[in-house]
Amino acid sequence: MWRLPGARSALRVVRTAVERHSRAEAVTETVAGAMERAVVRCVPSEPKLSLSFALADGSHKNMQRDQSEPLGRALSRIATNALKGHAKAAATKKSRKNRPNASGGVSCAGPGPEPAAACEPVVKLYYREEAVAEDVLNVDAWQDGAVLQIGDVKYKVERNPPAFTELQLPRYIMAGFPVCPKLGVEFGDPAGSLFRWYKETKPGAAEPEGGGPSSLSPSSPSPGWTETGVDERVYTPSNADIGLRLKLHCTPGNGQRFGPSRELESVCPVEAGPGTCTFDHRHLYTKKVTDDALIRTVSYNILADTYAQTEFSRTVLYPYCAPYALELDYRQNLIQKELTGYNADLICLQEVDRNVFTDSLVPALEAFGLEGVFRIKQHEGLATFYRKSKFSLLSQHDIVFHEALQSDPLHKELLEKLALYPSAQERVLQRSSVLQVSVLQSTKDSSQKICVANTHLYWHPKGGYIRLIQMAVALAHIRHVSCDLYPSIPVIFCGDFNSTPSTGMYHFVISGNIPEDHEDWTSNGEEERCNMSLTHFFKLKSACGEPAYTNYVGGFHGCLDYIFIDLNALEVEQVIPLPTHEEVTTHQALPSVSHPSDHLALVCDLKWK
């Protein structure tokens, strides 16, 4: 009889041995079906464990049991479930036996006595071929490598194998655009998991050589599906896939062991793509990830769905844009393809809906080696992604401008100046704009750190003085992070600043000061005047210069977006050319069927001095 106290060291040895199985051995065992599997999920922070297995009658059982419960009670419950399953199967068999056959007679099972009434099957749990004592608690009894026996059927117990907690395909799939499934993996990671893509077999198409998918295993996709030959996490459909649905067969893993496989099919067939997009030519400059000496940086306002899907947007702001091209499912395909095609090391995004961040951007960019952080504003927010092979996240120092201005001693002097102008102060403190600040550390050289800031300043055309105040708060906060908290680390400051190069905000950033008589202090009239002089100590430059425009809509075009860099530590290696004016205006203005936002992405390669 196996009992817990004398076997803990043996358990560790067995658990280690089980986890050392190679990938091929794990898959082979699954295919061969040598032993059924009983999956146990047991997490210390939760009071119950879950047990999942298939009975001989084909029914699948999912049980929740207290971790502190004696094993005997759990085994008794399993026996009861098995008996019910047996009875149900017997009833089904009897019903079939008495069903009239094709000639109108009654089907006969042949000679022989009726089977005896079912009795409760013997249910035991074994570890190393010894029965586990029934007074052992569930938390200790259900160990990896144990064997559960229900009647004549044996199950290999797998405790906390890798498992998908979430698995979802995009609703709208287009030819030529990457399909990035949304994954959640417990006790594993996507990099250690297995993927295989299938597409529907066209009517009348010949089966592939070797018997097709049905030759793989009993759990392989059923006939009617053809292998695409792609066994990676991301699949990009071709024009040949148009009109066909996709299927993904995936097995969660952690590099050493694998959990139960799952399959999911796309809801809709692959649609035709829009043809050439505004960013296709730009991707010719960004085919590969840069070497370690460079930092490819992207700043992009991707147009929040909360703003694109309004009647005002459809009829006033973007009446020239086809309605379907404003829909989120459509635009997400373009955004994913554009961003992944830049092979960037840093991506700073504005107007990011929370669900777009979690359901679209994270799955897509994670599949291409990037990790991201998100900061909500009100209805949308900011996202910063960084390449995991180059950077790790050290710390975050996000602020809400109006909160920091009122509560942080850093801004005491600025707040005192602003308090002299109550009307202006009230307007400034009403704004919800935020600043996202992330400190990253090089994975190759731990002494190399960088401060990455990302913001979206107040939008109103008459809000020049508000943007000046917001920028003063931003630069003071960034100085605190990059000088006080992490002395002398360089700064990259990206964003949609809603300011053209002729404005006071841009002058302030580039020159380091703004005089109190600048016209932007009265940007909303004399009533909200707030004259003051401001300075900052940074030496900043717009890495992409001053393009004619980064925002192009029906009623306005101008340069509103910038990547400001610290000239003391960084220099520009190359700027990726913006789309041509002809490309931007092919469909009159932005957004369009070939461009997902009303802004253009800024992309440049930076290098350390």
Brief overview:
This protein has 609 residues and is of the alpha+beta class. Residues 86-114, 202-231 are annotated as: Disordered.
Tell me what you see in this structure:
By secondary structure, the chain is α+β, with helices and mostly antiparallel strands. The protein contains 15 helices and 30 strands. The strands form seven sheets. The chain has a seven-stranded mixed beta sheet. Strands 18, 19, 20, 21, 22, 25 and 28 form a seven-stranded mixed beta sheet that branches. The chain has a six-stranded mixed beta sheet with strand order 16-17-15-14-30-29, with helices on one face.
Could you give the topology of this structure?
Blueprint: H1 8-19, H2 23-32, E1 36-41, E2 48-54, E3 60-66, H3 71-97, E4 123-127, E5 130-131, H4 138-141, E6 147-150, E7 153-159, E8 163-168, E9 182-186, E10 194-200, E11 225-227, E12 246-251, E13 262-265, E14 294-301, H5 305-308, H6 311-317, H7 323-326, H8 328-341, E15 346-352, H9 354-367, E16 370-376, E17 381-387, E18 391-396, E19 399-400, H10 401-407, H11 412-419, H12 422-430, E20 434-442, E21 449-456, H13 464-485, E22 491-496, H14 504-511, E23 513-514, E24 534-535, E25 540-542, E26 551-553, E27 556-558, E28 561-566, E29 570-575, H15 581-584, E30 602-608
